[in-house]
Predict the 3D structure of the following.
Amino acid sequence: MSLFDAIRIAVRAIVANRLRSLLTLLGLVIGVSSVIALIAVGQGTQKGVSDQIRGLGTDLIFIEPSAAATTQQGGGAAVLTTTLTHADAQAIAANGNPAISAVTSHITGETQAIAGANNVGAQSVFTFSNYAEVRDLEVATGSFIAPLHEEAGSLVAVLGSRVAETLYPSVDPIGQEVRLSFLAGRIVFAFTVIGVLEPVGGAAEADDQVFIPLLGLANRFRFLYTPTGEARVTQIDIQATPGADTEELKQQLTDLLLIRHNRTEPDFTVESQDDLLDAASEVANTLSILLGSIAGISLLVGGIGVMNIMLVSVTERTREIGIRRAVGATARDIVNQFVTEALALSVIGGLIGIVLGVVASLLVDGRTVGDQEMTTVIQAWSIAAAFGVAAGIGLLSGLYPAWRATIVDPIAALRNE
Amino acid sequence: MIRLQGVRKTFRAGESAIHALDGVDLEIERGEFVAIMGQSGSGKSTMMNIIGLLDRPDEGAYLLSGRDVAALDEHARARLRGSAFGFVFQSYSLLPRMNALEQVELPLIYQGVRNRRRRAAEALVRVGLADRIGHTPTQLSGGEQQRVAIARSLVVDPLVVLADEPTGALDTATGHEVMTLLSDLVDQQGMTLILVTHEPEVAAFAHRSVRMRDGQIIEDTGRSGAANAEGSAPIR
């Protein structure tokens, strides 16, 4: 019997039992498409997180207080518990380490930005004139904080793109007044908008931030300063010289700050962009594996469905097997028939599953689900693996029933009318 | 052409053993029309299964065209069965949802021969079903279904057609038509036919009848049609 005849017989049997074949296909289609789509979601999440971290800048090292900086509102007094200061950042910059190309620092807090009838919740970033450069932020209109503003203690603000859009939908924000309210409205100051940033897009935080010079505001924002008048910061960003050994640099930074803080155990953490990337990748990978496993299980269940159907058809088609044997089919012909049938089912299911999985991945890509923008990355290997597993399951689930079919006694089968 | 010598076949049912064939000697030549008669349990179906290579004797020799086929393995028997024998069963044994032409093509698929459609169509013409080629079993009468089965048995040009109670499921008139068709195929087209039946009216169409009881041949009329003594074989 030729391969063509075997396929023709298989397709006939599949078509003859339309409903049953459809239900079997459904299991495989769902299995294969969910493997492809869920792995695409997992990989997309990984890419999204990686992009976000890479979007922070290049070759960055972050120093943060290990006891998280918190603004506590107890008895009306605002207490900030970060031990990092602007002086630490200055000391790092003054250290003259050739592995360091730039140092900046900032302190963040929550604020409500108000302009006329519009208002929006934003993150306030009190920082320095070199922040935009270190963080790779581009100014769309106006300018970023300049050293001039820091010296004069000017009340100026640079708006992230989404903040600017919300507050000034129809007018040019530059030169406008924006009122920023801190500590749940206890402190409110009017700032002059001097610049708006280019949108960063995606889940980047800069679009929802307001940038304010940290220096020169000691008389207005006393809670941002230590009793000795040093500006507190919640993060110091160090840009490493391209090609520098970041691990060694991290150790040097740790040593320097331990001496400055006069401690043996650090009260801060030093992490490179790669560390964050690794941590995030690990989380995203776990997610990918989890999603892939769930999808894999559904694929397995689909495969068991095929096996079940093939077993049922052997029992149901005992008479057919007997007739085929009587007209000259060998045991091998019967095995081929059932394996081909199972394979054909799996391959058809696999192909439909690939199409559906890819379409689903493309449909979800870029859509916002809840407040999360979904990114999907379709992986060629996931398509190959899902299809391979489907075909493999098809082959396996055809073999056992096929073997059962060959031990059907043709005489008994023919009597079984 | 067919020569059975001392063939035995025993089936075990629990503790007891049933001697379905208990030392059978039989010779059948080309162009014969032999009816094998007997009550159910006489061993006639077992003998047909052995002749048709659906089953294997426990003991004894089976020569088909001079070749010993008793010891062939399953694969070889299946191959030989497909080319040397055509089967007609009591209940038509057609596959559901296939039209007459496809039913008749089936043995040719396993033979791997060319011109399958033409040969299948010719076989259907031979049984008088030229106008039923596209009909599925549910669209055919019992007699027509049996004729499709006969066409299917003929299509490979077998050495022998084996018919097991071919009229068993048909009414008298239709049964008669089917038997007339089979007789004509033997008389006019040189087909060799072995017919298993317990109905004397059906056996009457045959040129020779072999009567069985308890796994043994108790009567064989020989080619002439005259009753011979037990165990006697026609002179070659």
